[in-house]
Write a structure and sequence with these properties.
Layout lengths: L38 H12 L4 E5 L8 E7 L2 E7 L5 E5 L13 E3 L3 E2 L6 E2 L5 E3 L18 E7 L2 E5 L19 H5 L7 E11 L3 H7 L6 H4 L9 E4 L5 E7 L22 H4 L1 E7 L3 E5 L4 E10 L2 E11 H4 L4 H30 L14 H14 L12
Antiparallel strand pairs: 1-10, 2-3, 2-5, 3-4, 4-9, 6-7, 7-8, 9-10, 11-17, 12-13, 13-14, 14-15, 15-16, 16-17
The structure holds FE2/S2 (inorganic) cluster and fe (ii) ion (FE2).
The site of fe (ii) ion has 7 residues, from helix 4 and helix 7.
Length: 396
Amino acid sequence: MARCSMSDPSHLFSPAAFANVRKPLREAETLPTWCYTSPDFHRREIERIFKPAWRLVGREDEFAGAGAFRTIDTFAGPVLVVRGDDGRLRAFLNSCRHRGAQLLDGQGRCGAIVCPYHAWKYGLDGSLLGAPAMDKSLGFDKRGNGLIAARLETWGGFVFVNASRDAPDRRIGPLLEAWGDLPEVLGPYRFGEMVLVRRIDFDVACNWKLLTENAMEEYHTGTVHRVSLGQQQGEAVATRGDWDALFIRQDTTIALMTGETSPFPFVAGLPERHRSGTFFTMIYPSLQLACTQDCMWYLDFQPAGPERTKVTVGFCFPRATVARPDFAAVVERYYARWETSIGEDNAIGEVQQKGMRAEARPPGRLSWKEHHVHKLANWVLDRVLDPPAAGRRAAE
Ligand code: FES
Ligand SMILES: [Fe+2]
């Protein structure tokens, strides 16, 4: 392991410093400490990983009716998503065409989008409807001054946006381009027929990779979730594309505390494999879809600094389950389980971050149970280090 100092940023991206991360799992070490603490390493991740990435905004059913909107600060700038009078969801840069003021904030409903600065008014389709005192500006044409569209795509009821521009060395492909066989493997859960029943945001004092790694290994469950979930046994699932999966065999829902049972039915039509356990998946870089027999929940880990992460969690059930008369009472047990286990994971992430501040700490060794930790580390290095010196990671 090459020695590397935080006070010498030129070494932070030296391939030699990562030689042991690149080795096969049984010989490999973890990423060095600075990958979890350094502002320079963080900036590189934002530029090369998060800025061009599709960003989850929420679920389609959160935009009920014309004028329903939500704003989101992506790494490529502020974006607003609004449902039009024609029922279509659209995304725009959340920036006025006049002098750039942010147009909307938070979420809500509007009949039109009116700039808070000089009151230029835009329709829900982004067209400029009114611009006071622009009548003497030569050649000014309202038709050429509508809002700038950002890309928006939906899949399984999820709404994603991308406000990044294609650069000569970076083409932003369609949402599903990098997802490989994910739609095929997770299709049977019919996410599009599910309803979001609760959404929670957390601000966690640790690097995004600590939470993402933790979400894809069950090695910690016997200690961190000893009382709530107990020890789980996972199997790595072979995937194609920029996603990953861990399968936990258990023939009842995993979304309850250990030993509890539920009256909720399985998702209709689930194949045998899906009925026998739970898929914990990670869409790279940092969106987890946890798919169990009777529901799905997602965790979106967005970096808010080298040592801070914004975690958004959403819980979804099939529409028919939500319509049950006992839903409101029974779902409380699911909420209790999620709030406990997610709280335990967030807390251990903060404990780990504190330890990561020991600058002299050398990288650690990995267990065979940490396949996904190793895979994510190499995926990040493939993007953060400069080619061709970065090379390709060793075969696993
Ligand atoms: S900046 Fe929006 S109307 Fe002036
Ligand atoms: Fe956990």
